[in-house]
Specification:
Blueprint: E1 20-23, E2 43-47, E3 52-54, E4 62-63, E5 69-78, E6 84-93, E7 103-105, E8 112-113, E9 123-127, E10 141-142, E11 148-158, E12 161-172, E13 180-182, E14 186-187, E15 192-198, E16 203-208, E17 218-219, E18 222-226, E19 231-239, E20 244-253, E21 257-259, E22 263-267, E23 272-273, E24 277-279, E25 285-290, E26 295-297, E27 305-306, E28 312-320, E29 325-335
Length: 337
């Protein structure tokens, strides 16, 4: 008697299509077993379980999003025929971290780098570009007048895998300090003056005779300045954020001292030059001689030439650009020939 025997090939042809996969960090990981035979009896057992958050007995488990480094995942498959098969995949989690700060202090008008430790292997695009020297740089320099929220798109190409992350950085620009000063004093006789500073926001103040403030002459809103000679005082205002503003105050004592002989002899019929000598720190001087009708030449100069017919008193008033004045008289005598 003949019998029919049906032989079924129960070999499992299912498997993971990729042997290796590079994955961006903190992104959904899609791993799935593909079965050309669509065998509904296939059972799955994935390991290690600490890499799986759900679906460890399905064809497409859910993997942890916080994995790092290189991980290897295994799957054991079995069907109702009792056949089994093993497969695996190596996962490389790309070392990609944008690490953009969420907030940064930027003092008004002061060039400030926004991402000093930015890896150059990444590409960057900063928006808005206004106020930046290079919106495609990993570390652009910003010069800002107001607080600005930047969106930064950071990308990294690792083989055929492109990782991307959009982050935001708030460049916080404090209110203007609004430094105000009272001074810029020129004196004709005083020896000191009180300089004052104030601001629109709370601030500390330092004074110096040097623009780099290497030596501090005083602190606080007021400073008594000396009139020993023309000087420029610098005042530095610093707010609670460490932002600074600088202003200058010019002070100086500009008296005029006139010297010359009280009596000047003139030969009859000839002109004589007035030998006036001046001591002053001022640069611009003007002269008013009288009586003007006796001046032969140099009416607007220090040493005019004059000619008199008889003994005459001659006067001069010297003024400078700071409003200081000085007077002197000369007695012109006539020597007969």
């Amino acid at each position: 008697e003949a019998a029919t025997v049906t032989v079924i090939n129960g070999a499992i042809s299912a498997g993971i299509p990729e042997a290796e996969m590079a994955i961006c960090p903190n992104e959904p990981i899609q791993i799935k077993v593909v079965d050309p035979q669509n065998d509904p009896t296939l059972r799955f057992e994935w390991s290690p379980l600490d890499l799986i958050t759900a679906g460890s007995t399905t064809a497409a488990p859910t993997l942890r999003a916080d994995m790092s480094g290189i991980q290897k995942l295994f799957v054991r498959m079995a069907n109702e025929a009792g056949c089994t098969s093993m497969d695996s995949i190596t996962l490389e989690i790309v070392d990609f971290k944008a690490n953009i700060k969420d907030t940064m202090l930027v003092c008004r008008g002061v060039p400030t780098v926004l991402h000093p430790d930015g890896p150059s292997k990444y590409t960057y695009e900063w928006s808005p570009a206004e106020g930046l020297d290079d919106p495609l740089s990993e570390n652009p320099t910003a010069v800002l007048d107001a607080s600005t929220l930047f969106t930064v798109t950071v990308k990294y190409e690792h083989g055929n895998t492109v990782c991307s992350d959009d982050q935001q950085l708030l460049a916080l620009v404090p209110e203007p300090i609004g430094l105000q000063t009272i001074g810029d004093t020129a004196s004709c006789s005083s020896t000191e003056v009180n300089l004052q500073a104030d601001s629109d926001v709370p601030a500390t103040f330092e004074w110096s005779l040097q623009p780099d403030f290497a030596v501090i002459a005083g602190a606080g809103k007021q400073l008594t300045a000396s009139f020993e000679g023309p000087r420029t005082y610098y005042v530095l205002a610093t707010d609670a954020f460490g932002c600074q503003e600088i202003d200058t105050l010019a002070v100086g004592n500009y008296p005029i001292a006139l010297e010359g002989p009280e009596t000047i002899p003139q030969c009859e019929g000839s002109a004589v030059e007035i030998p006036l000598q001046i001591q002053t720190m001022a640069a611009q001087l003007s002269y008013s001689w009288s009586p003007e009708g006796l001046i032969v030449s140099g009416a607007d100069s220090r040493n005019p030439s004059i000619k008199v017919e008889q003994e005459t008193a001659f006067q001069v008033v010297v003024s400078n650009e700071y409003g200081c004045t000085a007077e002197r008289s000369f007695q012109i005598t006539v020597t007969p020939l």
